[in-house]
Design a protein that fits this description.
Blueprint (H helix, E strand, L loop, with lengths): L3 E6 L3 E7 L20 E7 L10 H11 L8 H10 L3 H15 L2 E5 L7 H7 L2 H16 L2 E9 L2 E7 L5 E2 L4 E2 L9 E2 L7 E4 L9 H26 L3 E5 L4 H13 L5 E5 L16 H19 L11 H36 L9 E5 L6 H13 L6 H8 L29
Length: about 425
């Protein structure tokens, strides 16, 4: 039975009524519109307003103070700051790239002997599960995620929804109805429908140390823009002896129509002096700060800079790529641990027939360059293993003569050109 009996979504709030299939029995809601015989829990919360005012370092400091409060921690201000920081294009792309490197892996469900279970693998190769994986990885950035399984039938989840992090207090295990509440729904009482995900030890998130960098970067952009307005365009000065309001308004109108550069209207006896900037490369003060912030963001998210920005040498690039791979492998392992330790039990409770000992595996679906692929195939061939004819023809876009005799692996040299081997012809 679908757990949703009614869903109300209006401009003010959202209300979802869940019918539980097993476990803790919630109280019968006092609502005449509902079936009195149905036992349900009401998940009722207000939409959180996204503040759009410009964030400053003082906002970051105060948000951290409220988040790290030893008695009554709150998450609203820090999560709002995190959202604001993702307006930065570099940070948004860095976070997205890290998430996609894992979310784009091929999903496999294997039994305890390592054999792929095709039906179960196909059952979770869906959009909703990719959403779960993405939100699991976003928990490393934001600290945590709370997912609501809002549409399902036995053995088939249709959709999931991410609940607002601003209303979640992980240390108390509650979902607030609105940010001013002191208590809320204990989501741990309903683990089959409200899935809490936290891949790191604490629920703070990596964006805590990155958010102030984006604030500093905006300061540089604003200062650079102001520098351009003052020194990039010449100042126009109009001097007049006529001080009537009509004449001054007409003069100002003419100056406005002449362009966007700054202008001043002065009495003929007054003087205004603009001190020119003697350094021709003053813009680098802002540009270098911007570059430094971008590099710091790249290091914080992906551990290096060369896969995002220009590198200087092949050896350094390989070292940076290895660092990136280590971070990706760690993310993959964390997702697998989360699924195999907890989420697989949620799926079992919702009708998915996972056998005992089944586990999630994630396979890279990256395209291997043809030269690297040929070297791998050559080593396999030299070990005495035959390669499938269809595989060779599809991989290397060749046609193999089936009447051509096989080649003795011992007759090949270790570094012989693979294109000259018999199994490629």
């Amino acid at each position: 039975m679908n757990p949703i009996s009614r869903y109300i979504d209006n401009y003010i709030n959202r209300r979802v009524e869940l019918k539980l299939t097993a476990g803790k029995e919630p109280p019968i809601p006092k609502n005449p519109e509902m079936d009195d015989a149905a036992k349900a829990v009401v998940l009722d919360y207000f939409r959180t307003y996204q503040s759009l005012y410009r964030k400053e370092l003082i906002d970051w400091t105060e948000a951290r103070e409220s988040r790290h409060h030893p008695v009554n921690p709150t998450t609203y201000r820090l999560q709002q700051l995190y959202k604001d920081s993702l307006i930065d294009n570099v940070l948004l792309r860095q976070v997205s790239n890290r998430v996609l490197r894992v979310a784009n892996k091929e999903i496999q469900i294997k039994d305890k002997n390592g054999i792929v279970l095709d039906d179960l693998s196909k059952a979770i190769r869906t959009r909703w599960f990719r959403t779960m994986v993405k939100q699991a990885l976003y928990s490393k950035m934001f600290g945590y995620s709370l997912m609501y399984i809002n549409d399902w039938k036995p053995g088939c989840i249709n959709s999931v929804r991410s609940l607002p992090r601003e209303l979640i207090i992980p240390e108390r295990g509650i979902l607030l109805r609105q940010i001013t509440d002191l208590d809320g729904l204990r989501y741990g009482d309903y683990p089959n429908f409200l899935v809490y995900i936290q891949l790191e030890e604490d629920a703070i998130g990596a964006l805590e140390s990155i958010a102030p960098l984006t604030i500093l970067k905006r300061h540089s952009w604003a200062s650079w823009d102001e520098f351009e307005q003052i020194f990039g365009l010449p100042l126009r000065i109009a001097k007049t002896m006529v001080q009537t309001e009509k004449h001054l308004n007409e003069l100002e109108s003419w100056l406005q129509m002449m362009g966007t550069a700054a202008y001043a209207i002065l009495p003929k006896t007054d003087e205004i002096e603009i001190k020119p900037n003697e350094q021709t490369d003053s813009f680098n003060v802002f540009n270098e700060k911007r570059k430094a912030v971008n590099e710091e963001i790249s290091i914080a998210i992906n551990g290096q800079t060369m896969t995002t920005f220009d590198g200087s040498s092949k050896s350094q690039s390989e070292t940076h790529l290895k660092t990136l791979e280590e971070i990706t492998n760690d993310d993959i392992q964390d997702v697998k641990d989360w699924f195999n330790a907890s989420f697989i039990n949620v799926l079992r409770s919702l009708g998915y027939n996972f056998p005992e000992g089944a586990y999630l595996d994630m396979i890279s679906n990256a395209i291997i360059p043809i030269q690297q692929r040929s070297e791998i195939d050559l080593r396999i061939f030299q070990m005495g293993h035959r390669l499938d004819k269809d595989y060779i023809e599809e991989t290397y876009n060749v046609v193999i003569d089936k009447d051509n005799p096989s080649v003795d692996p011992s007759s090949t040299k270790p570094h012989q050109d693979p294109t000259q081997l018999g199994f490629f012809q």
